[in-house]
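Is adenosine-5'-diphosphate placement plausible here? Inputs below.
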Amino acid sequence: GSTLEIKDLHVSVEGNEILKGVNLTIKGGEFHAIMGPNGTGKSTLASAIMGHPSYEVTKGSILLDGEEVLDMEVDERARAGLFLAMQYPSEISGVTTSDFLRSSINAIRGEGNEIPLMQFIKEMDEKLEALEIDKSMAQRYLNEGFSGGEKKRNEILQMSLLKPKIAILDEIDSGLDIDALKIVSDAINDMRSEEFGTLIITHYQRLLNYIKPDYVHVMMQGRVVKSGGPELAKRLEEEGYEWLKEELGIKD
Ligand code: ADP
Ligand code: MG
Ligand code: MG
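Reply from A.M.:
I modeled the complex. Tokens:
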């Protein structure tokens, strides 16, 4: 499996330092969760890993199997095996979901190695069924008029077709009702293998009832301040963040 190593990562947005030295290592076969109060930098971490231009890395490094991700263009990051589900996926006019998925698979596979059309259709149909997505959705324009829940399912559809080495899933649970949450969680659980590692960013512990993380991290004030196992998420769900702030001497 692959290894994503985030080392002493500092990230600024519009001159304000948001991440103040994040350290985190995710390996193939591992499910990590990051929790933390609103505004502590969780999405900033996801954006920086994927190379969003508004997020300036001022210090530190992100290595994928020893290669510096920060030196790669955004599309190179995807080709190297990183996947990011955005908190607010955008609409792309005039492109059907099916076309978008096929071209994103081919962008990763590279010229001369395009996925055969019949194989693509077969794989897509299998995943549509697993995610209980109506087949007609694949022929609709990407994200146009999709509900929040449909967008999330679509992202997981994309991830399961792209088969990334490491996926960063930011608030994949937001906007999902319980049934959809179960379906999406099952699809993520189905990806469990030595070849796949994920960092699941969430606000709520409830997602972690369906996707069992091996490691749970808490981010506060731009740093990972505590790491543990699933029991850490349980405690946060039951008791909130106050005890941890006290333990760490953090004032807000
Ligand atoms: P979280 O995901 O933990 O809720 P974010 O990473 O979204 O937190 O935000 C962390 C901090 O960075 C917040 O204070 C937020 O206002 C700020 N921030 C994040 N992105 C931007 C941006 N694009 N422009 C300005 N400020 C931002
Ligand atoms: Mg937020
Ligand atoms: Mg966020």
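Short version: The two ends are 39 Å apart (CA to CA).
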